Amino acid sequence: MLREAPSLQVVGLSASYGDVPAVTDVSLEVRRGEIVTMIGANGAGKSTVIKCICGLLKSTAGSVSLFGEDVTALPADRLVRKGLSVVPEGRRLFTKMTLKENLELGAYTRNDSSAVRRDMERVLTHFPELRDRLSAIAGTFSGGQQQMVAVARAMMSNPKIMMLDEPTIGLAPVVVDRISHLLLEIAKSGVDILVIEQNAEVALSMSNRAYILEGGRVIAEDDAKTLAQSEQVQKAYLGI
Known about the structure:
Number of strands: 10
CATH topology: Rossmann fold
Helix content: 25-40%
CATH architecture: 3-Layer(aba) Sandwich
Distance between the termini: 43 Å
Number of domains: 1
Shape: globular
């Protein structure tokens, strides 16, 4: 029996900024039903991997496939239509627009207005604290609320797979817990997830599998629980 194609498969990805290599020969995959994390220190190349996958940075080598289809050369808007959504580092909200307008912009590739309205209602079931603030200006929200809006906006494209770049950075521990719980809920609803994180403890606790990126290269990959228990990871990333 043939194995189902991964939701996301990256093979031999390399990229540079000018003459400076950023990532070299990076391979990873997200399988159906998984939360996968890539951890590493600041500057390890994690965000570069995200940019290459979602078409914002041209790779110098390697390939990217979604659900078995090679999408290496596709621009970002085409990837959204293929089922990929991204929550960028720093949230990148339209801070002078309302929450509702931000969510509607998340569905900009979709033409069925009734389906978009249904999905907005579905998305808000994950974010009950936002439901009464649809007319509020996004820039007035707290940092944690803005991160929730960024995730909710990404969900409005009705994705099959979601990538999140540093979703817990700068947030209070109680908000980090809330975001982690939300990602688990989203995964259970049928959206596969790739999380790029510096917070290794949080990332490993919610993931099925993990990759460690160091100096632009994958230096380890394994079941998340196994990596969390390894002496190398505990010393380098968990402060144990």
